[in-house]
Every structure is written in C-alpha cells, then in structure tokens.
C-alpha cells in the first residue's frame, strides 16, 4: 500500500539519502539540546535574601566605585571585639596619639580591639567599625566574609579577608561627655593601650590578612536579634549598597552553593552551566548590589539586588533559550516543522517501497509519421541506460522478410515492458482511403498493443508532443484496456529528465504485481 508513495522520482531520491536525514535530525536535536544551556539572567530581588550557615564563606568579587566596603554600628547594650591577624597603626593615628601623649609602636603585628566598660558604669555605648580600601583607585579583587558559629546564642562571629589590595579599618566610640564612658583596649603585638572612647583609631590591614569580629547581642529575649552589617553607602531608608561583579556562597571549602555573575535584565549567557559550574563568570555587563548582612549566631542573611546569571546547588537558574522560544508561537512552530520534516525524511527509509526487478527488455511501439524524431531520442536514451541488446524498436528491429505476427510474439516473450508512444496524431492518422489507421485490424501498432495486453506484458502509454491520453471509447475494443493504464508524459523542454523518470519506473514493480515482468 505504501509503494505508491515512492512513484515520484524525487521521493525515491530522498529515500536513498536517508542517512543524511538521520544525521541532520540528530544534529538538529543536539542543537536544540544545546539551547537548554544558555540561560537568562535572574532578578536577585525576586529570589529574596541569600542564606549562609556557619562555616560558609561569602565571596564578593571585584567591588567597584565605592571606597567604603563594610560598616557596622553596635546597639547600646551590645559588645564588639575585633581580632586582626596582622595590622599596623595608620600614620595619621600615630600622629594623633602622639599629640595626646600616647606613644604607640609603628610596627605590623597581630592586633586586637576590645571595648570595655569601667566598673559600675553599666551598659556600653555604641561602638562601630568601618572597612574601606586604602586607595580608592585600587580596590580589593575579592572580599571574603566567613560566617562563624557563635559561642553563645547571643554572640555572632564573622571573619573578613581581602585579596589584591590592603584595607583600612576605622574603630570608634561616640563621645558621650561622661568621663567614665567605656574605653577601648588596643593591643598591638606586646603593647597594650587604653584609649579614650571618642578617640578614632585607624588600622592598616595587609592583603590576605584576616580580621575577625566578635559581636555580642543584648542579653534580652527578643523575637529576632541580629547584627546588621551594611555595604558601601547603603542606608535602610535610602537604599544603595556596594556594587560587585559577582558573589558566591560556599557550601563547603572549595565547593560552591551559589554563584551569581552580574548581568543585565533578560540577558543570555551562552555557556551558562559549564562556565558557572567552574566558577567562571563572564566579563561583567552589570553590577550586583550588595546591601546588608544580617548576622545571627546560627546563620546569616545577605540582602542583594540587581540582575545576574545564577548557579545554585549545581543547577543554573533562569529560563533557557528553548523555553523562551516556546513563548514565541511562530518560531516554535517553525522549529517543530523542521523537526517533523526531518523525521518524515528519516522514516522514508523504513517505508516498504516497490520491489526492484531486472528488466529483460523494452519494446517500443510507435507511428513514425506521428512521433518518429521523438522516439529516436527516446531510443537513444534507453540504449544509453539499458544497452542496445535490451531495446527493441519495431520497424528497425524487424529483419527483412520476417513475419510480423511471429516477430511480435517472439519480441514480447523477451521483454518486460512495452512502450506505446502516443503523439498528437497517433489517434487520428488515416490511410489513403480516409479511414482511421487504428481501426484497421491489420494496423501494426494496434496488433503490437493488442498482443502485449493479451500476453499480460506491462504496457506503459508514453505521451509526447503534448498529446492527450485517449479514452476507452476512442480505441478499438481489443486495445481499449490501454486507456486504463497510467501514462507517462515526456515534454520537449524537459525531455531527458522525463525520459529518465520513465526509465526509473522500469526498475520497480508494485509489491502486488503478478505481471510477466515479475520475478
């Protein structure tokens, strides 16, 4: 039943090229699978605060524009202690201390800063620190903040480290006018200095040297208490923050829980999964704004904003390009159409087609006065494709003195196909008496076609010169069955192509055929 599908030459040629169809289909599917890798950027405001647990590090990459990086001010009943792996007093601080009669060492050493209240004074006043770049033209490459577990539920700990540039840390207590206000204890190496509360202190921290903050929260039951660090010029009412090109949160040392690379709204990252998984952010095309960090004893919440490409727990967030195509009906329909056409092309390989046969010979029946020149061209093409020994042309193939009927019967026994060539005058050519030649029982063309039909040979009407196919009532009764045969037309302008299409038909027989030409 499927054999008729392949009656067209172009379909047979497509069927022969089915490996190309399979290859193109696989290539198309692979390309569409690749479209699931590019990801759109995500608006960080929409995913809420980012959480870091004790032991996890928050990495802020390539801060831009802001010299002030982090600031913190404690509550009036809180405490703040700082530990520095390495630090030295800034020159302006050394000069300030000298003026008030305090001689401090100009050395780089481990340091600590402790706020303590005098006995009997009670609660401390607010204490604060500010972390900034020493040089506004050279900001740190990376700012790392590691959340540490608190020793008590009312204590939070944070470690801060800068890579690529030194930092300066300014420490201060406000002046309250009270002579017994809390004082600051500064230890620098082996030297301890007890400083007035209102005296500002500035320390210089070399790159890769860590600073650890130990913050004590008020010892009063409250629903949620936290130490709030602010970044850049952020204020709760005015917004703002520190612009960075990327931020990450470690799940464990060396393993990422979250990586966000700054982008623009709706932008695509073509190698999202691969690049983000290796921690490789593209060149920044948009900033991530880091606003605040709420520290509690058991966790920290980082508030950020902006657009970014995000990898969370190994999975890229945001829509892929294929999902975006689904939202465009026209493009999605074209993509499905291409897939469908390639699939149909590949399926042609399994469609049961006509059975290939071996053509023993072809007999050409024609009228010289009607289609002689065209038959000559057709004969040459048949000889070129099949060989002269398998092509029989009635008038040229009949030896002199041979009996017509015996020659026709002998020729038909050696061929599988008879071509009945019908030209514009084939049906109406008349003899010298004005009678139609086809109506005469002695007409050679009529006898050839009638004998072929009677013998069950496959007869193909071949229309040339624009001739129409005769109807059954236009033909004598012994060849009226010719009108029911499927005809092939050969045009003058497309003669060779049409002739080749005709010859291609010789090579196949329908699966259900029981004619003489069936093996």
From TrEMBL:
Gene3D superfamilies: Toll/interleukin-1 receptor homology (TIR) domain. InterPro entries: TIR_dom, Toll_tir_struct_dom_sf. The lineage of its organism: Bacteria, Pseudomonadati, Pseudomonadota, Betaproteobacteria, Rhodocyclales. One of its GO terms (biological process) is signal transduction. Keywords: Membrane, Transmembrane, Transmembrane helix. The keyword Aminoacyl-tRNA synthetase does not apply. Residues 362-470 form the TIR domain. The chain crosses the membrane at residues 330-351. This is TIR domain-containing protein. It holds the Pfam family TIR_2.
């Amino acid at each position: 039943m499927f054999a008729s599908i392949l009656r067209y030459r172009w379909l047979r040629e497509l069927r022969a090229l089915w490996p190309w169809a399979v290859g193109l289909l696989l290539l198309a599917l692979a390309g569409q699978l690749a479209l699931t890798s590019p990801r759109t950027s995500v608006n960080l405001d929409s995913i809420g605060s980012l959480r870091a647990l004790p032991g996890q590090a928050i990495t802020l990459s390539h801060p831009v524009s802001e010299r002030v990086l982090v600031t913190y001010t404690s509550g009036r009943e809180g405490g703040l202690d700082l530990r520095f792996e390495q630090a030295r007093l800034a020159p302006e601080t050394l000069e300030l201390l000298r003026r008030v009669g305090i001689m401090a060492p100009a050395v780089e050493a481990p340091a600590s800063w402790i706020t303590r209240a005098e006995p009997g004074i009670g609660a401390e006043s607010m204490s604060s620190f500010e972390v900034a770049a020493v040089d506004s033209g050279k900001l740190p490459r990376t700012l790392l903040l590691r959340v540490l577990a608190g020793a008590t539920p009312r204590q939070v700990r944070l470690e801060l480290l800068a890579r690529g540039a030194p930092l300066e840390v300014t420490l201060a207590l406000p002046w309250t006018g009270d002579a017994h206000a809390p004082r600051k204890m500064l230890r620098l190496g082996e030297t301890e200095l007890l400083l007035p509360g209102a005296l500002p202190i500035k320390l210089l921290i070399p790159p890769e040297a860590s600073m650890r903050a130990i913050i004590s929260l008020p010892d009063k039951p409250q629903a949620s208490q936290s130490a709030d660090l602010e970044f850049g010029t952020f204020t709760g009412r005015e917004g703002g923050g520190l612009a960075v090109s990327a931020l990450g949160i470690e799940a464990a040392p060396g393993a990422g829980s979250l990586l966000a690379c700054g982008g623009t709204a709706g932008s695509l990252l073509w190698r999202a999964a691969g690049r983000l998984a290796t921690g490789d952010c593209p060149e920044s095309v948009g900033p991530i704004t880091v606003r605040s960090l709420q520290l509690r004893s058991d966790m920290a919440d980082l508030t950020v904003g902006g657009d970014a490409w995000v990898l969370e727990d190994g999975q890229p967030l945001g829509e892929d390009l294929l999902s975006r195509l689904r939202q465009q009906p026209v493009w999605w329909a074209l993509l499905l159409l291409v897939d469908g056409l390639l699939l149909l092309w590949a399926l042609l390989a399994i469609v049961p087609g006509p059975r290939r046969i071996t053509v023993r010979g072809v007999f050409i029946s024609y009228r010289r006065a009607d289609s002689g020149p065209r038959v000559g061209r057709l004969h040459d093409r048949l000889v070129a494709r099949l060989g002269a020994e398998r092509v029989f042309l009635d008038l040229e193939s009949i030896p002199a003195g041979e009996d017509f009927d015996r020659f026709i019967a002998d020729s038909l026994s050696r061929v599988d196909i008879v071509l009945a060539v019908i030209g514009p005058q084939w049906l109406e050519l008349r003899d010298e008496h004005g009678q139609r030649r086809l109506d005469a029982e002695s007409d050679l063309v009529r006898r050839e076609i009638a004998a072929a039909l009677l013998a069950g040979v496959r007869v193909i009407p071949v229309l040339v010169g624009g001739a129409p196919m005769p109807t059954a009532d236009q033909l004598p009764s012994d060849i009226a069955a010719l009108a029911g045969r499927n005809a092939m037309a050969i045009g003058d302008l497309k003669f060779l192509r049409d002739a080749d299409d005709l010859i291609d038909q010789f090579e196949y027989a329908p699966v259900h055929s029981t004619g003489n030409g069936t093996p």
